[in-house]
Design brief:
The complex is a heterodimer of chains A (343) and B (296). Chain A is mainly alpha-helical. Chain A folds into two domains: 4-76, no CATH class; 115-342, MetI-like fold (Orthogonal Bundle), CATH 1.10.3720. Helices cover 66% and strands 4% of the residues of chain A. In chain A, the strands form two sheets. Chain A has a two-stranded antiparallel ribbon. In chain A, strands 3-4 form a two-stranded antiparallel sheet. In chain A, helix 3 runs parallel beside helix 6 (195-219), helix 3 (116-147) runs antiparallel to helix 8 (236-265) and helix 10 runs antiparallel to helix 11. Chain A is globular. With 296 residues, chain B is an alpha/beta fold. Chain B has helices spanning 27-30, 88-94, 125-131, 146-156, 162-175, 179-182, 195-207, 225-238, 251-257, 275-280, 285-291; strands at 4-5, 20-21, 48-59, 62-73, 77-81, 105-113, 116-117, 132-135, 213-217, 243-247, 260-265, 268-274. The longest helix of chain B has 14 residues, at 162-175. Chain B is globular and about 55 Å long. Classes of the chains: A mainly alpha (343), B alpha/beta (296). The A-B interface holds A 149-150, 222, 224-225, 227-235, 238, 242-243, 246-247, 340-342 and B 96, 98, 101, 103, 126-130, 133-134, 136, 138, 140-144, 152-153, 155-157, 189, 191, 202, 205-206, 209.
Chain lengths: 343, 296
């Protein structure tokens, strides 16, 4: 029996003149031919290259989006009116005064492209949403990984993952049609659709991200650390608070940052539930317009190549940059944790 | 298994029924405590720290410990030896109830420390674990500074004063023979220490809550010979103040550091006696086979 069987050789070749299938020691010449029988396998080469393309495709896609967004946005910068992105001195015929207006009024006699109300809107939705989902999410993650029995976990975890699968338009519809009126009754707000209603909806979408990633981070904490803490006479709660959470803090922060990025990028819910009034405000119960909602609402009806069109790309580029750096920082924080726990 | 009658007649042990005792073969350790003055000095009543009576432990349907009887003396080193899976680590973990954290564990029998049944209904497990410290096989420092690692236990027990904490950290590290190596870098991460230093840090951390009993689960099995030597020296020096029970796979180590040795096999305590006797003149054939390396 040959010791070295070339994988490519068919079975019936075994009785044919043995070329490269010789066992060691029988013939030094044949052995030499055997170990020097390197071949080029086209199919293997092709497979490798195809997998390489699949592997780098995400990098390529990000790169292409980046180039496309910024290429279009640059046209706006070429007009040289960078100050417009913050505000504009406008003469107001009613007050008979010239004032500095931070407004987004793209379709108007004097178009105004201030990003400030949009940024205001985005953060006014994303920050409360992140706070709500962080509180709920970390609590839920701690419960799932530290306290829940295997059985409870088996039910809760898939339910949470189901939450991530709900189409955002359904959540938006629910907020718009049902929850908004309910919230108005509770808080007696001036506007039925406001940043708070939107942020509650967005919190539903960021919650699964924060829970899943925080729970992963907590489960990555070695059991030995918990045992060490318990053996020192720590209670369960002291072990969670003093050992598990500190060891997982980087992973948890990464999940919160990622959730925040997701909240900034959420579109459908905010289009439907926030009222879409581009106001500069700090009031969480006021109607707001986020960057994403602004693009979604206007880009469909804008003249291609107009100033307005390019201004929308500036908004897109700002949004992209923000979420890009948020995701990058979460990745850095995660790496730090892996190093710390020597994983 | 050989069956040897052994009667317990302690007054405080009224619910205990004398049972056949297959394990206690060494006369010094296995004889009645209330026997006459001919008792060896080591068996004065006050010297017994832990009494284990008829202890059985089940992981679900599997029985991991079978009716173990054992008396462990204070201020001594007791080594638990035996092949993998023989229950010695499980036995160790019953002594500070670390098995409680594993779901599906059932325990029968009694473990008494200073005559208190630690599986009794009034036992505060958290307090018990403070009295019975534990060092694990894999060194497991928290990803915190050296200082915070040692101060973790005292802080759990509401010691907040910085000065007191510093004193505790220093004395614990000194007891663990690590102070000189780390005194200039107490606030660096414990993860930067070498494996042997990490293990001594874990010992210091266990000592910082001032336990009376120290359980060690193969504390040196992952260490190089020099670090192992240091740990062994340390165990020897700690013996004066603590009752040490150590699980080890290394028979030379058991012979070097322990005063008493217990040989476990398949969940049963096969033989228990002074280390000298176990290693030179064991009464049981199985023990002899194991300690001479013919088996296991």
């Amino acid at each position: 029996m040959p010791i070295f069987q070339d994988a490519d050789s068919p079975k019936e070749d075994q009785n044919a003149p043995r070329e490269v299938l010789l066992p060691l020691g029988e013939s030094s010449l044949d052995f030499q031919r055997f170990i020097t029988s390197k071949k080029f396998h086209f199919s293997e080469w092709l497979m490798e290259k195809l997998l390489l393309i699949a592997g780098v495709s995400s990098v390529l896609i990000i790169l292409l989006i980046f180039i496309f967004l910024f290429k279009e946005a640059v046209f706006f910068f070429q007009t040289g009116r960078l100050l417009d992105l913050i505000g504009k001195w406008v003469y107001d015929p009613w007050d008979e005064k010239t004032s500095f207006k931070m407004m987004w009024q793209a379709v108007s006699e004097i178009p105004k492209y201030s990003l400030i109300p949009l940024l205001c809107g985005s953060f006014l939705v994303a920050i409360p949403a992140t706070i709500i989902s962080t509180i709920l999410g970390i609590g839920s993650a701690v419960y799932l990984s530290e306290i829940a029995s295997a059985k409870t976990r088996e039910i809760l975890k898939p339910t949470l993952e189901l939450l991530a699968g709900i189409p955002t338009v359904v959540i938006g519809f629910f907020m718009l049609a049902v929850a908004a009126s309910f919230l108005q009754e509770i808080f007696h707000t001036q506007f039925r659709l406001n940043a708070f209603a939107g942020s509650l909806g967005v919190a539903i979408t960021t919650l699964p991200i924060i829970v899943t990633l925080s729970e992963d981070a907590l489960r990555a904490v070695p059991q030995e650390l918990r045992n060490a803490s318990l053996a020192l006479g720590a209670s369960k709660w002291q072990t969670i608070w003093g050992t598990a959470l500190p060891a997982a803090v980087s992973g948890i922060s990464a999940s919160v940052i990622l959730g925040f990025g997701r909240a900034l990028g959420e579109t459908m819910i905010v289009v439907m539930a926030t009222g879409n009034a581009a106001l500069v405000t700090g009031n969480i119960f006021s109607s707001v317009r986020t960057m994403t909602a602004n693009i979604a609402a206007e880009l469909g009806s804008v003249d291609r190549g107009s100033e307005h069109y390019y201004a929308l790309f500036v908004v897109g580029a700002v949004l992209f940059t923000l979420t890009f750096f948020l995701n990058l920082s979460s990745e850095i924080v995660l790496n730090k944790m892996r190093r710390r726990l020597r994983m | 298994m050989r069956n040897e009658k052994c009667e317990f007649t302690e007054a405080e042990e009224d619910t205990f029924e004398p049972k056949e005792n297959p394990i206690l073969s060494h006369e010094e350790l296995n004889s009645d405590e209330n026997a006459g003055p001919s008792q060896p000095e080591s068996l004065e009543k006050g010297r017994i720290k832990i009494r284990v009576r008829n202890l059985s432990l089940f992981y679900g349907p599997t029985q991991a410990l079978k009716q173990v009887y054992m008396k462990i003396l204070r201020q001594s080193v007791t080594a638990l030896i035996g092949p993998s899976g023989c229950g010695k680590s499980t036995f160790l973990r019953t002594l500070n109830r670390m098995n409680d954290t594993i779901p599906g564990v059932r325990i029968e029998g009694r473990v008494r420390i200073d005559n208190i049944d630690i599986y009794g209904p009034q036992i505060n497990v958290v307090a018990l674990r403070r009295v019975v410290g534990m060092v694990f096989q894999k060194s497991n420092p928290f990803p915190k500074s050296i200082f915070d690692n040692v101060a973790y236990g005292p802080r759990l027990h509401r010691i907040k004063s910085r000065i007191t904490l510093k004193e505790i950290v220093e004395s614990s590290l000194k007891k663990a023979a690590l102070w000189d190596e780390v005194k200039d870098r107490l606030h660096q991460s414990a993860m930067e220490l070498s494996g042997g230093q990490q293990q001594r840090l874990c010992i210091a951390r266990a000592l910082a809550v001032n336990p009376e009993i120290l359980l060690m689960d193969e504390p040196a099995s992952a260490l190089d010979p020099i670090s192992t030597g240091k740990i062994e020296e340390l165990i020897h020096s700690l013996k004066e103040n603590y009752t040490i029970i150590i699980v080890t796979h290394n028979m030379q180590q058991a012979a070097r550091i322990s005063d008493y040795t217990a040989y476990f096999y398949l969940g049963s305590l096969v033989e228990y006696g002074t280390t000298k006797k176990i290693f030179t003149n064991p009464e049981r054939k199985e023990t002899e086979d194991y300690v001479t390396g013919r088996f296991g």
